[in-house]
Specification:
heterodimer, A: about 70% helix, flat, B: mainly alpha, MetI-like fold, globular
């Protein structure tokens, strides 16, 4: 009996400890999410913003307009976001994996190189974006200079003023930012593989490529899964980098769902449309996040 | 002297490692070099790989009284320290509660914190804007402080929880036998031990707030109150091609993060992997 009360009071204490943070997140994330959901079914824009009496519910109108209106670029923004995300993750993952394999070996300077590589991930994205914007300039941009002197380009090009090359530029910048994240998570995975497995594989006469595909990759599958799903979620919602480098341009060629939602709300002041676009982004992320949570739920985690 | 196969191997790895390092770090090198060049050299074809006419003019300009840089720096400092304080103060007890006690719904709460880490800021931005405008908090440091703290809390709760879990339970029990209650045990025993974890959480909350752009540009339109990310963004809009000044501005904007990185590299790496994978 006494034991029971003790357990119960401990449970209350546990809740009491976590409550302040939980309430805070409810107020500043949970409540705005609900409000955003409601807002997306209303007609709040620059005209009705200050006059609540003129606001009314319009059902799914904002959503249907986003998907069917000739002026809406949401479908294009979704496509752009998918291209941006898949291209970024593909290269980030491969390069990150390669670097992880390299830095998993012991050699002089290894931990220094590995450590400094981390910095691109920590830098404020705004500054990284501006740096890449500069490097991709027509006049004074170093990328053009490298590519022309290597004879890959015949003449300098306006990277950020042309749709396809602007996409290449933002993806390149995003790869640079994301590599350390991929590298670190895979590196942590690699350190969990016992040395003996490699030794016995070597005795069995497996070559390097065989060991990579038959042992290393299957052994770190959980790490790979979290890198890919987390990477997808983080990349899919990228805003600052693109806003700083291209602002979605030229002519919406790099407009992502996040930048489009921002533009609708804070440049065109169509708050309800912006809320609806943000909800579409959320639904896509939720779908992917669901897989992530399933994979981490299977491992020890909780 | 004969070079063994092993040392030869290591030499190769060192060469490859150095090569990768040079390519990877080049953008940062380029930022520094550009800040030290004259505008003429920047637009020269081909532009020199290092400044032939070294000049600190750009830095002098950015650090002068009239520039936005120092003001932005101060604003960012206020906002980031505020967000860090809120985030850390709330996360420590939450992480402790979620690490040490059993109760219904605990798993869901942990999951909620995990999910908020993945939410796009645009999802809450419009409603937060309306909410802050109703509270008359627009163009007030509190708006970005309150919003930026939500970036740090989930991460801090998750890494601090792993930290508390790694502290042996016997320690709290010993404290309880000595007559401490849960709360005294928490304050007197757990907090001091968890200090390294708390530092990591605080540092990350600071770095997240420092790097924020979207809340800063949305909630603060007064040029005198803008955080540094927002002021450098506006600076580039205004002075399109003044790249040496922009890069000097950028270097000043990243300096706190770089300093933190240099002094706390080990903690940051462990924090990143714990917060993201183990969750």
């Amino acid at each position: 009996m006494k034991e029971n009360i003790k357990k119960k009071s401990a449970a209350y204490l546990g809740i009491a400890f976590s409550l302040p943070a939980l309430i805070y997140m409810m107020v500043f994330i949970g409540y705005p999410m609900v409000q955003n959901f409601i807002l997306s079914f209303k007609n709040v824009d620059v005209y009705t913003f200050a006059r609540p009496e003129n606001q009314s519910f319009v059902g799914l109108q904002n959503y249907t307009a986003l998907f069917t209106d000739a002026n809406s670029i949401l479908p294009k923004a979704i496509l752009n976001t998918v291209i941006f995300t898949v291209a970024s993750i593909f290269f980030q993952f491969i390069i990150g994996f390669g670097l992880a394999l390299l830095f998993n070996k012991k050699f002089p300077g290894c931990s220094f190189f590995r450590g400094v590589t981390m910095i691109s991930w920590l830098l404020p994205v705004t500054v990284a974006g501006l740096l890449f914007k500069f490097m991709f300039q027509l006049n004074g941009g170093i990328v053009n200079q490298f590519l022309t002197s290597a004879h890959i380009l015949n003449q300098p090009i306006e990277w950020l003023l042309n749709g396809k090359s602007a996409m290449i530029a933002i993806v390149t910048a995003n790869i640079w930012i994301g590599i350390p994240f991929n590298m670190m998570l895979i590196l942590t995975g690699l350190t969990t593989i016992p040395e003996e497995i490699y030794e016995s594989a070597g005795l069995d006469g497996a070559n390097k490529l065989q060991t990579l595909f038959m042992i290393t990759i299957p052994m770190i599958k959980p790490a790979i899964m979290s890198v890919l799903t987390l990477g997808f979620v983080y990349t899919f919602k990228v805003f600052d980098l693109v806003w700083v480098m291209t602002k979605g341009g030229p002519v919406n060629a790099t407009e992502l769902v996040s930048t489009y939602a921002y533009r609708l709300s804070f440049e065109e002041f169509k708050f309800s449309s912006g809320a609806a676009a943000a909800n579409v982004l959320f639904l896509i992320l939720l779908f992917v996040g669901f897989f992530y949570i399933r994979t981490i739920d299977d491992s020890e985690v909780m | 002297m004969k070079i063994t196969k092993q040392t030869k191997n290591k030499l190769w790895l060192l060469l490859i490692g150095a090569f990768v390092f040079v390519i990877f770090i080049f953008p940062l090198y380029w930022m520094i070099v550009t800040a030290l060049k004259t505008q003429v050299e920047i637009f020269q074809i081909p532009t020199p790989m290092w400044p032939h006419q070294l000049t600190f003019e750009a830095f002098q300009k950015q650090l002068s009284e009239s520039s936005d840089t120092l003001r932005g720096f101060r604003n960012s400092l206020i906002i980031s320290v505020g967000a860090m304080a809120i985030s850390t103060l709330l996360s420590i007890p939450a992480a402790y509660g979620l690490a040490r006690f059993r109760f219904k719904g605990k798993k869901i709460i942990i999951l909620l914190f995990l999910i908020t880490q993945m939410l796009p800021s645009t999802l809450v931005l419009t409603s937060l804007y309306i909410m802050f405008s109703g509270m008359k908090l627009l163009n007030n440091y509190w708006a970005p402080i309150l919003a930026d703290a939500t970036l740090g809390i989930p991460f801090s709760v998750i890494i601090l929880r792993t930290y508390f879990l790694s502290i042996p339970k016997e320690l709290d029990e010993a404290a309880k036998i000595d007559g401490c209650g849960h709360i005294t045990a928490f304050l007197k025993i757990m907090l001091p031990i968890a200090k390294p974890g708390i530092v990591v959480a605080a540092v990350f909350s600071f770095v997240y707030a420092w790097g924020d752009l979207i809340y800063g540009i949305t909630f603060i339109t007064n040029p005198n109150m803008r955080p540094i990310t927002s002021s450098i963004y506006n600076y580039v809009q205004q002075y399109q091609t003044l790249w040496n000044s922009t890069m000097a501005f950028g270097i000043i904007a990243i300096s706190p993060v770089v300093l933190i990185f240099i002094f706390m590299q080990k903690y940051i790496v462990s924090g990143l992997t714990n917060g993201a994978v183990k969750a």
